């Protein structure tokens, strides 16, 4: 008995551990059920509002039917009064025609005068009553038109409410789609940033291959799809000239020259036009965490290359402001794709300049 009691005492810790393991999924399931119940409450609220509108429409239709029935009753009463007055008039005329005696001649004349007088009074009263009935009928017609307009307005409001509900559902789906698109764009840009670190040790065959890679980067990047014009290639070529990758001779090659545009390559070497456009100096170009050191010229090929061992890469830390600043072009460009901004072109050109700095840092060391 004591061993059984000890065994039972050892069971609760195991059950408590199992309950603790299941607590996480059940809490998530409870949150989802709470969200589903909240959406159901919203749907029930909208359904109750629609039912109230339908009830009000039914009440107005019943009122309109009541007014129509009242109009029919009034028209029937008017017809009966007219027939009654005509019958009375015929009866009185018949009585007057029967008074053929001479002694009733004067009395008949007096009675005829009174009859005509009373008949005129009756006709005046009848015409006044008819006018009142016509006025009432007109008022009822106006009320019916007002009820029709109100019913049309309520139907339009119901249609607008349905349209707003459908637009809200479409906006929710569009927001989810944009969120997925934003996640994929961030993932691709992170992969591009991670792959850019391997460019430093890769030796390119010649300058033409370097320019081709730069053009591919501009065309394949999300920014390239927004600024795919001559300005993007102008910024790229200006960056290559600033870091001394391109000079007066190799910029006129058959591969680079078509990207210079109709103004020619000389404008990239003009210091006045360079500073007039507001482009920062060559030392300020940095691409996603790389800083360009002072360049030196190689004695063999006559090309300026950065000295070895001087590439400075900032420390990656979630609390470092430098790490946050290196991600600003990526996040800014992603936001600009979703929300139009007035300085969108300036930000895209700035990112192209920073990518030009990465291309300069990826040249082989001599």
UniProtKB/TrEMBL annotation:
Region feature Disordered, mapped onto this chain: 296-334
Coiled coil: 123-174
Keywords: Coiled coil
Compositional bias of kind Basic and acidic residues: 319-330
Protein's UniProt name: Uncharacterized protein
């Amino acid at each position: 008995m004591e061993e059984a009691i000890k065994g039972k005492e050892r069971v609760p810790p195991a059950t408590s551990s199992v309950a603790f393991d299941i607590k996480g999924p059940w809490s998530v399931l409870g949150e989802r059920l709470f969200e589903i119940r909240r959406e159901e409450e919203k749907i029930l609220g909208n359904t109750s509002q629609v039912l109230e509108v339908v009830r009000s429409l039914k009440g107005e239709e019943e009122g309109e039917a009541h007014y129509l029935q009242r109009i029919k009753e009034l028209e029937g009463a008017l017809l009966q009064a007219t027939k009654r007055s005509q019958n009375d008039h015929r009866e009185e005329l018949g009585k007057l025609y029967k008074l053929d005696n001479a002694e009733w001649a004067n009395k008949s004349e007096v009675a005829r005068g009174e009859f005509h007088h009373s008949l005129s009074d009756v006709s005046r009263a009848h015409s006044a009553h008819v006018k009142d009935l016509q006025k009432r009928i007109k008022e009822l017609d106006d009320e019916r038109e007002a009820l029709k307009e109100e019913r049309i307005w309520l139907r339009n409001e119901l249609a607008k409410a349905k349209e707003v509900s459908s637009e809200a559902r479409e906006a929710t789906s569009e927001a989810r789609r944009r969120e997925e698109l934003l996640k994929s764009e961030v993932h691709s840009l992170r992969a591009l940033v991670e792959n850019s670190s391997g460019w430093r040790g890769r030796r390119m065959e010649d300058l033409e291959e370097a320019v081709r890679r730069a053009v591919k980067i501009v065309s394949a990047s999300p920014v390239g799809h927004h600024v795919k014009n001559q300005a993007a290639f102008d910024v790229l070529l200006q960056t290559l000239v600033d870091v001394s990758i391109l000079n007066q001779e190799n910029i006129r090659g058959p591969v680079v020259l078509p990207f210079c545009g109709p103004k020619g390559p000389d404008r990239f070497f003009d210091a006045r036009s360079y500073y007039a456009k507001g482009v920062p100096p060559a030392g300020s170009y940095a691409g996603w965490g790389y800083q360009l050191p002072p360049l030196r010229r190689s004695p063999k090929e006559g090309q300026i290359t950065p000295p070895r061992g001087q590439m400075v890469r900032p420390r990656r830390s979630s609390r470092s402001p430098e790490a946050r600043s290196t991600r600003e072009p990526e996040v800014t460009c992603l936001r600009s794709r979703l929300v139009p901004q007035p300085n969108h072109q300036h930000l895209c050109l700035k990112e192209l300049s920073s990518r030009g700095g990465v291309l300069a840092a990826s040249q082989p060391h001599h």
